[in-house]
Design brief:
By secondary structure, this protein is an alpha/beta fold. It contains 15 helices and 8 strands. Helices cover about 50% and strands about 10% of the residues.
Amino acid sequence: MRVAVLGAGAWGTAVGRLFALGGNEVLFYGLEKEAESINTEHVNKAFFPDVRLPDNVSYTRNLDVALKDCEALVFAIPSKAYRSVASLVAERLAGRKVHVLSLAKGFDPETHERLSLVLREVLPEDRRYEIVSLLGPSYAEEVIHDQWTCLSAISKDIKEARLFQKMLSSPSFRVYTNTDEVGSEIAAALKNVIAIAAGIIEGLGGGINARAALVTRGNAEILRFGIRNGARPETFLGLSGIGDLMLTCNSMKSRNFSIGYEIGKANDARKVLESNSKTVEGVYTSKYVTEMACAMQVEMPICKAVYEVLFRGESPARKVDELMLRELKSE
């Protein structure tokens, strides 16, 4: 199958390599000139200069070339770009249907919609099959070095989920399937907010007790929000739920955890955010989820505290004190 991967970042490169190892022809699309090393040296110098990519991998900066005759389309771009890029794609897919895989974790910055809904809305039904999302605990650098990883392919159409399950699975990369699109996408997006909180706790000098409590109570918030939106409770015990939450809240490899750590160390978010140049999905997700939770009257004190630290200049240490001194109640 001919697979077009939109985005040649770390995660897109790792997943694209898996498609190629499965015998598929993979063409990356991006705007970075440095990624042209994929064509000349079969490595992505920007992210993995030590990993040689298979011969059936190439790169283009021309979207028309990327989409020509492609059978599967992978969105490996930041959530904020989904709508605009999908619009460009839709114009170029007239007369044929493609299989679609989504890799990002977050919400649309304009509508606060889940990303599968954005793709479903922008890509006409006559130009794509049902959307599939690949979610779960995964760091690109471990996947590209063939370290054991398990994820879930999530879709309302189990046949489409199984298609990508078969295309991507290998001895080191195991893919499960799941049909709870709502719960999986909400868990994947909101865990980034909790990861920022976990990093803040670490930066402030909190111990393992504090982080364990934070992750547990954070998962309770995600579960409340998910159920309120129609998710299945058991999803939050799976790979895209507690699995991804555990990973992101316990490693400096996580952009969300690491930026939270810097904020905690400084006890101030402003300077840290001003100097940050990387995409950190949890920052804006904290704003969206706080607004949505308020509108739906869902109690989410940790997510709200993160939002207030990031966007209202509140002191991280003071917000922790406020959370610890809330009215006592049953768990």
